[in-house]
């Protein structure tokens, strides 16, 4: 999770195919040691109180990583970790982390073999593993391996959930009190979600980077707080986001060829692309001139005091395009 803060507060570094671009500094680790403002009380979180959680991995198949039932990373084009989890941990207490791995259609008839699943656990020196960095004790601790239970037959996918207790010095609102979207009429929810994604798409496609980043304000603030991002660096970071998002003018495809997906225990929703970029957000954008892909995934929610769906979280990568 590294980079120069140029596309989204959660845009990560991944090497994939031809090349990948550095996006933003490793907030949860590199910024440990800097005092920040508490999300709830306004009090400064001292460096000695800062705690970060992350998952490291290097998975050779398409995958999805979820924390508390909200997608953090994954897709057909996703690269290796690490992936910080703090902005998906809304408060101290029990958390869940879920890993789903599936076989591409052109691999063994779309089936994972038992030895593939075993290899995921072993994965050289980077098996999927949950870690914690605790500045109170200067401790770098392995919390648990995310090891799949062994199987004795082929499967199209494997999915497993693990639980862990987190202790964090902040409280985030996130989607905790948002409307339960699973109770909505399905057609009404899809229409509202597509309409909101179309608005976001139009901002990007018109080159209005500032307008798009303005839509991320609440999500960005919770990212900054939970990852201990110093206040003096936030404005510079946002300006970088505006510049890169503004560079997508005329490139963003219409909102179509998608599937709607409810997550976050019913309180969040997203549109995922189908086809080539399966598992990535419907706003995924190719720049064929530069040979790059912007993998943009947005999760929406509806705060109870809001009249429309708002951005809860955004993730993404810049990666090199595959050569056909």
Which terms summarize this structure?
alpha+beta, 324 residues, globular, four-stranded antiparallel β-sheet, four-stranded mixed β-sheet
Topology:
Blueprint: E1 11-12, H1 27-30, E2 36-37, E3 44-45, E4 51-56, E5 63-67, E6 70-75, E7 83-84, E8 93-102, H2 114-122, E9 129-134, E10 139-145, E11 157-166, H3 186-205, H4 209-214, H5 217-226, H6 231-246, E12 258-263, E13 268-273, E14 285-287, E15 292-301, E16 310-320
Parallel strand pairs: 1-16
Antiparallel strand pairs: 2-3, 4-7, 4-9, 5-6, 5-8, 8-11, 9-10, 12-13, 14-15, 15-16
Number of helices: 6
Largest sheet: 4 strands, mixed
Order of helices and strands: EHEEEEEEEHEEEHHHHEEEEE
Strand order of the largest sheet: 1-16-15-14
Strand content: 25-35%
Describe this structure in words.
With 324 residues, this protein is of the alpha+beta class. It contains 6 helices and 16 strands. The longest helix has 20 residues. The chain is globular, with a radius of gyration of 19 Å.
Question: Care to give the gist of this entry?
Answer:
By secondary structure, the chain is of the alpha+beta class. It has helices at residues 27-30, 114-122, 186-205, 209-214, 217-226, 231-246; strands at 11-12, 36-37, 44-45, 51-56, 63-67, 70-75, 83-84, 93-102, 129-134, 139-145, 157-166, 258-263, 268-273, 285-287, 292-301, 310-320.
């Amino acid at each position: 999770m590294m980079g120069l803060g140029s596309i989204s507060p959660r845009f990560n570094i991944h090497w994939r195919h031809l090349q990948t671009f550095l996006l933003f500094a490793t907030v949860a680790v590199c910024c440990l040691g800097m005092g920040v403002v508490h999300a709830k009380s306004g009090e400064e979180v001292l460096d000695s109180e800062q705690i970060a959680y992350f998952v490291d991995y290097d998975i050779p198949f398409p995958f999805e990583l979820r924390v508390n039932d909200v997608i953090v990373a994954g897709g057909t084009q996703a690269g290796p970790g690490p992936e910080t989890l703090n902005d998906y941990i809304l408060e101290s207490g029990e958390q869940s982390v879920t890993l789903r791995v599936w076989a591409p259609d052109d691999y063994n008839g779309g089936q994972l073999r038992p030895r593939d699943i075993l290899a995921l656990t072993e994965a050289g020196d980077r098996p999927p593993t949950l870690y914690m960095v605790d500045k109170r004790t200067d401790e770098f601790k392995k919390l648990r391996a995310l090891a799949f239970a062994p199987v004795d037959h082929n499967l199209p996918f494997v999915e497993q959930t693990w639980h862990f207790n987190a202790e964090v010095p902040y409280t985030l609102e996130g989607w905790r009190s948002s409307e339960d979207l699973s109770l909505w009429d399905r057609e009404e929810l899809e229409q509202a979600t597509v309409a909101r994604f179309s608005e976001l798409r139009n901002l990007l496609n018109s080159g209005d980077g500032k307008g798009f980043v303005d839509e991320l304000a609440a999500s960005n603030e919770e990212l900054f707080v939970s990852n201990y991002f110093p206040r003096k660096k936030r404005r510079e970071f946002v300006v970088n986001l505006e510049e890169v998002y503004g560079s997508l003018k005329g490139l963003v495809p219409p909102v179509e060829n998608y599937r709607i997906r409810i997550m976050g225990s019913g309180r969040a929703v997203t549109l995922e692309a189908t086809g080539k970029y399966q598992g990535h957000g419907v706003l995924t954008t190719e720049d064929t001139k530069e040979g790059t892909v912007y993998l943009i995934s947005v999760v929406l929610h509806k705060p109870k005091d809001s009249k429309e769906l708002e951005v809860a979280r955004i993730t993404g990568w810049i990666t090199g395009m595959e050569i056909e």
